[in-house]
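Recap quiz, item 2
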Amino acid sequence: MKSITFTNIMLRIILTIVGVLVVSILLYPVVYAFLMSIMGREGIFLTSLNQLATYGIDPWRYLEVIRDPEFVKSLTTSIIVALLTILVSVLVITPAAYGFSRFRFWGRDSLLYVYLIMSQVGGGFGIMATVALYIFLLRLNAMGVPVLGNMFILPVIYSSGLVPFMTWLLKTYFDSLPKELDEAAFMDGASWSTIVFRVILPASRSALIIITLFSFMSAWGEFILANFLGVSTLAQYIFYTAFGARGLELPARFAANAILFAIPTIVIYVVAQRYIGEAMRMGAVRG
Amino acid sequence: MPSRKTRAEILYPRRVAYTLVLASIALYLFFSIWPILFSIGIAFTDANDVKIAPNPKLVESINNAIACATMLRDNTSYMQVAIGVVRRVDSLLGSINQSLADIYKMTASGVSPSSLEYQLAASDLYNKASQLPSILSDFEKAFNCTQLGYPTDKTVVSSDVESNLTRLMELSSYLPTLQDPGRILNLTSMGLSIVSSSISYFRSIETDYKGYFNSVISSLEADKSNVELHFIGLSNFQKLFTDPRFIYSLYKTLLFVATSVPLKVSVGVLLAFLYSTPLVYGRRVWRGLLLTPWALPLLLSGMMWKYIFYPSGPMGLALHLDINNNEWHAFLVYNLFEMWLAYPFIMTVTMGALSGVSKDLIEASYIDGASVWFRMRRITLPLISRPLVLATILTTGASLQAFMVPLLINGGGPTETITVPFLGSATGNANEFLLLFGYDRVTIDKQYGYAAATYVVVVLIILAYVALWFYYSRRGGRGW
């Protein structure tokens, strides 16, 4: 560093002011969301800070939202769907990733290659795949499989979407675990399911946490398919109502809804940055 | 090496491997791969909300009606009965026609509705018309396919016939009670037109019985083809490339790439430079805060951007933006929103590259008295350009596939007349980017075959883009 001169100090002050200004401009939508959600009057858009003084502040709106039966119902659905997604992903993907890691079998390498490509393609393909899936599900529904409005189909579909990415993630983890671990268990006469779920999985705790977090996030935030199928998860509820006429009638109410909806995502982002960073280091990032 | 192989096979037998991976592969194939293949197939069909899942009951009902009409056409004994009924209807209608004409003439020449003459004629008409129900039931017996043993909700005779005859009955029970000559004239002339159209309809059955049923069968076949899925070859693709909405969507998407990519890359790079200078106090905190768009779910950010830029929202009012009616205002908001969503990525990548610029090099350049500009051009830029180009390529892909941004801000609106040179015009959403175009064809039009064809083309466009960047990144490996 050079010596501190007058110009240097001036430059520092100016740049810091600019920096703070830029941050506040870029974070304006977030602050706006919060202020809107506690504004005293429900039916209008917040357009100036004076309105906060005029109409007062109403933090109890959050309590109202939590007591709203529609919110509670869709929240329950969301939680069930997310938990089931975690369960199905762990139960189905873990053994498979273990299989890919330890075993050599016909089709292994090409499958891994397909998974790699599919886990790297971006969100646009995801939307198109969702629309394709919807067309397929309509046909399935007509054939007598109750798909539309069935919330138990969602976890299975979400887990299916997680297969390529998660298999790679877990496989990489298992690769780094010493083979001696499972070989010893095998010699002791343990069955394969015991080895996978009792020996390997506990030994790869952070992998388990990652799979849980990703499964939760994908189930929690997804709303296009849920909306297609008419399953009212919290995300679908917000998308369907808040982005329609009702959202414009009660913007403050739905801002509160959306903030409550965002809390788990934000918490996971903050708490799990370490794990997500780990996942990214393993080169398994989505575009 | 036999010994090693044996060891691996004993410890990790294939049979176990297949049991371990089978469930996940089945899950993935059934819910991810197969739907995609299925929908590619659908792209070559005329699937819509009816045809995607033909209602078996409806198809059976139409099939029965066709069988019924065929039997009525070909079975001579049925034909005799049917023609007999038609003749009876015909002759009854003929005499009703006569009575109506009499009443009309009478009233027109000034005979009072309360006169005996009128009353007689009206009751004569009423008597004739009261025979209609029994004829109608005969008619139903002869032509109602369900009663003939072909359960169906389709009719092989015009469904107007029944309602016409019923109206005729009502009308003739009215006439004796009416006093106003004008109303009488009105009603009788209405009755006359019903009778004449009915007569000509029945005559057509009578004179060309086979021809009548042939036309019934062909119209039923058309009904059937409206509910059944058909392979239509490349028609969807042909329609797509002559659809002004799609061409406009392609144009808008490319325009969005051209505007949003420079915007978000330059904002991201500027932010990275600003918050990398040691001259800004507390820059670690600011950097952390700047990553907020990453931490928020899209629904919340989308909602806020929509509210802020809504015509009655704060920025909408301040900047006089009308995203509901002005396509370019909406387009501007998309660009800003996309920039906001993507700058953390560009900023992080650039900062990562900047932190790689060695301090020694910078200090050396200070000592050499290099200008800021020189330092930038010769030291900083070469170091950050390669990761930045890669990030730009990725974020270009994101703009090309923009979907959530228009969907959440205003659903890709406003709806207006879209005119494309050489292709004409159509009504559609002015900001339907490629992916949203297919989505809207599913959600709004319910044209599944067309939507699938759209996505086949979009995938090809994206693949072309991916291939292009693969090609350039290989070739440009030496120096960006």
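Chain B is about 75% helix and 0% strand.
Chain B has two domains: 58-227, 238-475.
End of item.
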